[in-house]
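Take a specimen:
=====
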Amino acid sequence: MTRHIDYGNLMHRAMRSLIQNVLTDVQKDGLPGEHHFFVTFDTMHPDVELADWLSDRYPDEMTIVIQHWFENLNVTDEGFAITLNFGENPELMYIPYDAIKTFVDPSVEFGLRLETEPSDDDEDAEEEAAQEAPMEEMAEDDVPQQQQADVVSLDQFRK
């Protein structure tokens, strides 16, 4: 048996912990300033809990926005529960950290992409790799269209 440092799994755990810490602060103090989050998650994950009509509408993955209206944010070591408003219809959902694919805070151009690394080896099949991805490298559908903006250079106005 060859021993090695499992950097992928260590990074994945560190990023889960980062998400947990951020959400714990929001649970305690609310969202500061312009911060808000886009969280994309696997709706097929066995521990995800959401209304049947939402899982029917989003059979593979779903992106939620935590910004203006949310209630009952409850952060645990394994995931978080939150009530969000869908067209005047509040829905409680539970999202385990293992189901999260991306976590983005566009107000500060911060984004994490958590990916599962495919492997044929049974021992490695349970290990997950995670990587930090700059927002510009994320797929366009990871960020809803209304949040994308044009970048304007101000160099022409400098003296």
